[in-house]
Amino acid sequence: MFNIVLVYPQIHTNTGSIGRMCVNAGCPLHLIKPLGFVIDDKHLRRAGLDYWASLDLKIWESWDEFMAANGKFKQRFFFATTKTNKLYYEAKFQPGDFLIFGSEGHGLPLEIMRTNRENCITIPMSGAGRSLNLATSVGIVTYEAIRQNIDKFDFRSAVCEF
Questions:
Q1: Mean pLDDT by groups of 10 residues along the chain of 162 residues
Q2: C-alpha angle 142/145/151, rounded to 5°?
């Protein structure tokens, strides 16, 4: 599926919610330290509910360690930021892509985004706010990537009988 990468996440409830979404979307979650919380934090587990045990979680000590293991795929890195005009749905996502998001308070460091400027993407917003909640942003971009590639995956459809 897609690799969800959180660089220096700070809020445990966002990470827990993103972990739950990753399980349901079939995506591994990469967390890059430093983290603003402890992984065994009860709030993190509460936000992820009972999904946390099913999460394909990879924790990296630093961006450099993450790049040493995954840098050969950097042309398939997509950086979510408010500092570009390229809309997320204009990107052509492929299975295995890395969808990379920054911390809640600071976003992605500029030096990270500069490694592949043409793959910086943004979510359109009105001028009334600065940014969206991290968990919301991850969900929007991830499910657009899934929508673009739905024929390549086996998702069960929810059946509702009345």
A1: 96 92 96 89 60 91 97 94 95 97 94 91 91 95 96 71 66
A2: 125
User: In this structure, which amino acid lies at residue 142?
Assistant: T
Does pTM top 0.85 for this prediction?
A: yes
Q: Is 102 annotated as a binding residue?
A: yes
Domain that holds residue 59: 3-152
Asked if residue 54 belongs to a known ligand binding site, the reply is no
Residue 59 annotated as part of some ligand binding site: no
Which domain CATH number covers 137? 3.40.1280.10
Give the C-alpha distances (Å, rounded to integers) separating 105 from 67, 75, 130, 131, 133.
23, 26, 11, 10, 10
